[in-house]
Amino acid sequence: MHNIVELNIDEQTIGVIRRSLWSEFHRVSLSIVWVLVPFFFFFPLLSFGGFGIFLFVALLASGILFAVKTWLVWRFTMLIVTSERIVDVEQRGFFDRQISYLQMDNVREVVAKRSGIIKRILDIGIIRVKTKNDEEFDLELSGVRHPNKVRDFLDEVQCAIIQEEKIKKLKLKNEDNLRAKTEE
Prior knowledge:
By secondary structure, the chain is of the alpha+beta class. The chain folds into two domains: 13-19 and 77-177, PH-domain like; 27-72. 49% of the residues lie in helices and 26% in strands. It contains five helices and seven strands; from the N terminus they run βαααββββαββα. A four-stranded antiparallel beta sheet has the order 1-2-3-4. A hairpin with a 5-residue loop joins strand 3 (85-91) and strand 4. Helix 1 (25-40) runs antiparallel to helix 3. It is elongated and about 100 Å long. The protein starts with 12 loop residues before the first strand and ends with a helix.
């Protein structure tokens, strides 16, 4: 995580939320089929000579590339929850990654949504983090396992951070009052 997102001083990673592999089931299945199909046609392709071998290698290589891309997108698409912000990392391809973040004090609400019978059975859904400012974007991660538990976790983290900020403000206020009394 630390090579993807650079943390600020005193910022700590609290949790990482990834998509479920079940949400990538269709891509994983296609990858497996794409890699295996050339082997089923290996001997008929050999009858075409050099062109058949080229076609076999091309089909196999493209299937492997698709499988690797599917794994990369699944592995590096995540929400990173820190003590100061929520970082949305969206891997779109081999060399295409978008990173955006939202400060914890700008979070208005966290919504968990599940739709469809299969997703309900597998308990997979969407997590959307809405901002206080309507002009800013919302963070969203689809295909999350146990979305209600993730929502509760994010709410708990946000409440803890707000509570910590209140305590810091009270301490500063008390220190200022003590300084003012000692100066008198």
